[in-house]
Amino acid sequence: MSRLHTELMDALLARIAGGTYPVGSMLPKEERLAEELDVSRGVVRECIRALEERGVVRVRHGRGATVLPARAWNVLDPQVFSAVHGAAGGRRLVSEAAEARAILQGEAAALAAERSRPEAVRALTAAVEAIETATDDHVAAAALEFDRALADAAGNRPLARAAAALAEAMAGAEPPSHGRPEGYRRVLDAITAADPAAARAAMKGPR
User: Fold this and answer.
1) pLDDT, tens digit, for every residue of 54-73?
2) How far apart are CA 84 and CA 82, in angstroms?
3) pTM, entire model
4) I need a surface site. Which of 39, 71, 110, 113 has the fewest CB within 10 A?
5) CA of residue 8 relative to chain centroid, distance
6) Tens of pLDDT along 122-156?
7) Which fold would CATH assign to domain 89-202?
């Protein structure tokens, strides 16, 4: 997506999430949006198509685009997430996403312990050691690498993809919140010991 398309998408999403175009309303016609936003009709058309792909609007030939209820929106899309987060009540979405991430990571830790594959344990060990030696400026990056190694260690591709999508959507939506290095070490120890229950419980510590 070009910069122009991204900027137009952000503008339209902000208006939709902010209530300028409320649920059930029709977006302005392509000609009007193109004139108002100083872009071509083709760019507007492509952005509306992208909104439809993200579940934000429904397009009916000859009628135009209707704004769908928020429950239909793909909030794992970073642009949609950012727009909702920036609107009134957006902190609720961040809380929901953090809750979902905690559930995914807890189950990922349990699966990683259950499977306890040597190569996965090695990757997690390297990630934990990086956290333990990281300076303040690099803790966030080291913790993110741990998250990736944990998702891989779980050996569940849909879970790993969901965790990655959450992380991408939430990037920049909240300040980093990382636990103490010993919390990550406890997760690693439980996974190394092949103890799913202990790994799930320990995963509550780093966050």
Assistant:
1) 999 999 988 899 999 999 99
2) 6
3) 0.82
4) 71
5) 21
6) 999 999 999 999 988 888 888 889 989 999 999 99
7) Four Helix Bundle (Hemerythrin (Met), subunit A) (1.20.120)
